[in-house]
Amino acid sequence: MFDPRSSLFTVAKRDISSLSREKTIVLAICIQLFIAGFSSFLVVGLTSLYDPSSVDSEERLELAVTGEDQEKLVGAAAETDGPQLFRYDDREDAIGAFDSGDVDAVVSVSRSSAGDGTRLRVEAVVPAEDLKTTLIVVRLRELLTALERLERTERGAQLEFTPVEVPSDDAGSSSYFGFTYTILLPLLLFLPPFISGSIVVDSITEEIERGTLELLRVSPVDLIDIVDGKALAMVLLAPVQALLWILLLRANDIAIDHVGTLLVLVTAVATITVVVGVVLGLVTGRRRQAQLLYSVLVILLFGATVLLPEHPARTVALLSADSATTTTFAHVGGFAVVALSLYAVVRRYVGRVDPESL
Amino acid sequence: MTPRKLLRIAWWEVTRNAGGIDRRTLAVAFVILALFGLVTPLLLDGGVGLDDGLYRVGIDESSPYYPVVADDETFVVRPGADRADLRNGDVELLFEGATVQFRDNPKSLAAYGELRGTVERFNNEQLRLEENGTAAFPVSVLLEYRQRGGGGDSPRIEDDDAGDGGASDGTGPADDGEVDDAGPGDDPGSGDGEETDGTGDPTDGGGSGTGGTGDRGPSLGGDSGGGLGGISGPLSDDQVSGSPADISPPFPFQSLVLAFLFVIPLNFLIQAYGSTILSERINRRGELLLASPVSRFDIIGGKTLPYFLGGMALESVIAIGLFVVVHGELGGVVSLLAVAPLVLLFLGATFLGAMFARSFKELTFVTVTITVTLTSYAFVPAIFTDVGAVALISPLTLVVRDLQNEAITLGEFTFSTAPPLLCSGVFFGLGAGLYREEDMFDQRSLRGRLLDALVGPIPRAGGSSRLTARLDPYVALDLRTARQYVAVGGLTATLIPFVFVVQLLAIALLFALGEISLILVLVVVAIIEEIAKSLHVYASFQHRRFEPGLKTALALGVASGVGFFFAEKIALLAQLVGLPELAVGEAGLQGGIVPGPFALTVALFLLAPLVLHVVTAAISAVGASRGKRQYGIALCLAMLVHLAYNLTVVMAVV
Predict the structure, then answer these.
(1) What is the rounded CA–CA span in Å between residue B232 and residue B168?
(2) S-S: B350 plus which of A245, B134, B270, B608, CB 3.0-4.6 Å?
(3) What is the distance in angstroms between the Cα of A35 and the nearest Cα belonging to chain B?
(4) Is residue A144 part of a domain?
(5) Distance from CA of B142 to the nearest CA of A (A)
(6) Within a domain: A166
(7) What is the number of structural domains in chain B?
(8) One domain, residues B362 and B439
(9) Does A165 map to a domain?
(10) Domain region containing A136
């Protein structure tokens, strides 16, 4: 007797093996690796440009100081283990030293009256178009913030609010933590579902356009089996890839919690994208229309999730970083329910589609 | 190529192409995009707050830090938590009065780092409410970016003017004292800067970049800067002013926005274009056109033209729109000219990809690869808009500069646009080589197709090729064998733009890494150049264009090496804009003018590279003549020789 379930797996297996035969899945994983690497590069590269303390450069900044109130800056510099100061009496001389590259920046400090009091006016000249500029500006900011703190304390009597003390900076915290959990991991987990849906669109429209769907239907399977098989293959592919990423991150000493729940979430999202792909593929029957609509629709859906109490990316972040709340789990459950019911609706729809019309 | 036929095919493509986008689909797509437009303000406005609730803090209301922590959504307050909770990892930070405790794990440490930023932000916000503005913000900073040694490049603006300009146009809110009559946050410009979502750095002056020259700067940086948490984007970054917390390093946020504005639409375009090309190859549909009395160049041109024009129309709308928004006037011709090669590059790569792909599924992956690679090519260098030469690798930098009304020299323009333009030429050329009945409809693997494409321009032994046959009337000798070698050398030369683009991308990606980047770039250079010199030689041996033999292989190596050498000297272009000022640039595009006696210059600049290219090409050619494995080994050997040579040169020169 013919077992309908085996035909489902046959179609699923056929689809997966065609992917591996064409080695496209390898390409897919390479692309994801590239995107992950690219975004990490962006962040690591930019963070190190932007926050030089993460590079831990030994080099001390060399500043030329001018102006009548340079003493104040010297005082502030003594507080931080910051830059080396060189005093200049004349601003022009200092600029000259700057132009010839002897100092990294020129800072002039003077007092100016403003409104109901006076204010220290700092004019800083930093090099334009230099790789070091970022470092210089950040170090300069540290120095000037120290100066501001000193001045504020001096004038504390005139203030109603006493600034809360900033905790000391000796913990050596990494600025990549937030990025890893809130951007990188959601990106890695949501990319596979997106690609899965796109492949389903291709897989269905290709059968229709090449006319091979007809051949499939000659075999003892009906349209629901074919769609089930194709959908199953792609839905399952997503959590497998997600698991790979999670294991890869774990191998890099990035702890990821709630792996099971994360995989449920990925599977649910993949089901939703696959359902969208299936419907678009069957309705349009042409790859170009279906792909165009698929990409805009999925972008819209992802954008619309901002209306949820918790954005899916945040759900991933909270789960993986072990900060999950009841709301987080409720979201995962919600996605699963939506995915299952959507799939049920689509099966009913497929059952009504007349294969002859495709 | 006949324009009339080409236009006819283009017209068909627009009106009745099988599988074209019909009106209904377009309408649906527009509705969806319109809906997305409704969501976008929410995205930008509220901030998605991806890290909300990431860190849990045990704190009592009595702690001075309570209002700080409660104010920042990144933290969740867990009242009544004790040390046991901290140990179990149920809270990341624990306050006991005014002292904070944390554990030595990444999450706790990250929470602590986040706390420092939050405290600074909180202080600044509270101080902004103070009546005595000068006591609250006793230091005002005016940051001036100055071209070193240039002297007059960035003229110092008079103190008063600079102060006015700085405060009146989107400086950070803390800057209110710079101009006495501007209250805290009551000028429209500073409103933008106040949004922070807590992900960034303590500064929140989203719009603080435009400074004294604010009239030229668009509000792009200010509007969207808030969403990213205080990454301020000085579009014309001569000066920045504010309190110390407001100054931040130049971050070219506008390049980011521009990249997305200009590049994202192209990705939709190539999806449709790839489908068109591939659908010709499905069920032998393209056979009809191929059999008609038009050349394949007419077909390719005709099929591409509508997409190119459509893409350019889209980009013009964006460019002109940007100019109207920024300057209030029409403009952007230079921007359009700069984007055109990018559009062509996207189309060219997609065309070749569609010629390679066997199925829609494969095409999807090929398109995604193209999207990712080319987006990074357009985007990564543009990040470094302030680092001059590196930025020019991407044509988008020209757009940024055009928007800033900065002068663009012809040399810079060429440097930026020629590689992508030539590259798209190579892509179209290789793809056109496959646009033949015998290649279009078979199902070969990607690798096989790549070799097919590469061997296309090399004539069969004794046969004639259109390219080299044109030499016949001028040269009396029998050149049939020589032609093959010329074709090999010529193909190597044609691949140069591609090599060039990859190297430039590598430079852009790697130069921020510091010392090690020089070596890494050299490795990339060796790999890509050796592949470009030998892959088609391997392909032609595989396709039996040449009889395997040591002499043939050596001759081919010489041909390929010489071809590469000549074309590489065109890379001298790079010197025009001074990219070699960067040590990395010099390494990548070696052949920098070596200081020293003339003879030495000639030797180092001309002779040595020539010898190098010939030798390495010969090594890999000999391997290629023997088989797949031998080719792999020989290629690695050639790469090593190349790398060793490069290292020696760099050590000697730098």
Answers:
(1) 16
(2) B270
(3) 7
(4) yes
(5) 5
(6) no
(7) 4
(8) yes
(9) no
(10) 53-158
Best probe of the A interface among B62, B134, B267, B386, by most A CBs < 10 A, is B134
On chain A, the residues whose CB falls within 8 A of the CB of B358 are 22
Residues B372 and B510 in one domain: no
Beta carbons of A137 and B113 less than 8 Å apart:
no
DSSP for B226-237 reads GGGTS----SST
The alpha-carbon gap from B12 to the nearest alpha carbon of chain A, in Å, equals: 17
Mean pLDDT by 10 residues, chain B (654 residues): 83 66 72 72 60 86 86 85 84 84 84 86 84 80 73 36 34 35 35 34 34 33 31 43 70 61 82 85 80 86 91 88 78 85 93 86 81 79 61 79 77 82 89 82 77 79 55 58 81 82 76 71 86 88 83 88 81 49 46 49 69 89 88 92 84 65
Decide if A118 contacts A112 (C-beta within 8 A). Answer: yes
What are the pLDDT digits (tens) for A301-332?
887 888 888 888 889 999 998 888 899 999 99
Number of independent structural domains in chain A: 2
Most confident of A35-44, A124-133, A276-285, B20-29: A276-285
Residue B295 belongs to what H/E stretch?
none
- Nearest residue to B231 (alpha-carbon basis) of B260, B186, B192: B192
Indicate yes or no: CB of A323 within 8 angstroms of CB of B56. Answer: yes
Q: Chain B interface, mutation test: which of A91, A148, A257, A329, most B Cβ atoms within 10 Å? A: A148
CB contact under 8 A, B180 and A115: yes
Please tell me the distance from the alpha carbon of residue B462 to that of residue A156, in angstroms, as a whole number: 93
Most A CBs within 10 A among B148, B505, B513, hence the mutation to make, goes to: B148
B377 found inside a domain: yes
Average the pLDDT over each of A162-166, A350-354, B152-156, B299-303 and give the range with the smallest value: B152-156
Cβ partners under 8 Å of residue B584, min gap 6: B507, B510, B511, B517, B518, B521
ipTM attached to this prediction: 0.79
Helix (H) or strand (E) holding B172: none
Same domain, A109 and A208: no
What residues of chain A lie within 8 A of the CB of B362, using their CB? 22, 24, 27
Decide which of A102, A123, A158 is a domain's last residue.
A158
- C-alpha distances out from residue B454 to B43, B95, B447, B541, Å: 47, 67, 11, 11
On whether both A17 and A115 belong to a single domain, the answer is no
Inter-chain touch B21–A160, beta carbons under 8 Å:
no
Which of B456, B478, B493 is the endpoint of a domain? Answer: B456
Q: Which domain holds residue B174?
A: 139-148+157-251
Residue of B nearest to A16 (CA): B361
Chain A closest-CA separation from residue B204 CA (Å): 14
Residue in the structure block whose two tokens are 């100092």: A103
Q: Indicate the residue of B180, B376, B388 with minimum beta-carbon distance to A114.
A: B180
Both A42 and A57 in a single domain? no
Half-sphere exposure of A298 (CA within 13 A, CB side): 27
Give me A85's structure tokens. Answer: 């100061």
CATH number at residue A63: 3.40.190.10
Same domain, A145 and A37: no
Q: CA B556 to CA B621: how far, in whole Å?
A: 7
Residue A210: Cβ-neighbour burial (10 angstroms; 0-12, 13-18, 19+): middle
Question: Which residues in chain A are contacts of B387 at CB distance < 8 A?
Answer: 129-131
Q: Tokens standing for A74?
A: 């010297």
Does a structural domain hold residue B628? yes
Claim to verify: residue B496 and residue B524 sit in the same structural domain: yes
Q: Which one, of B642, B295, B477, B450, lies nearest residue B486 by Cα? A: B477
From chain B, the residues in CB contact with A279 under 8 A are: none
Which of the given ranges, A49-53, A187-191, B180-184, B224-228, has the highest pLDDT on average? A187-191
Write phi, then psi, for B216 (nearest 5 degrees).
Answer: -90, -25
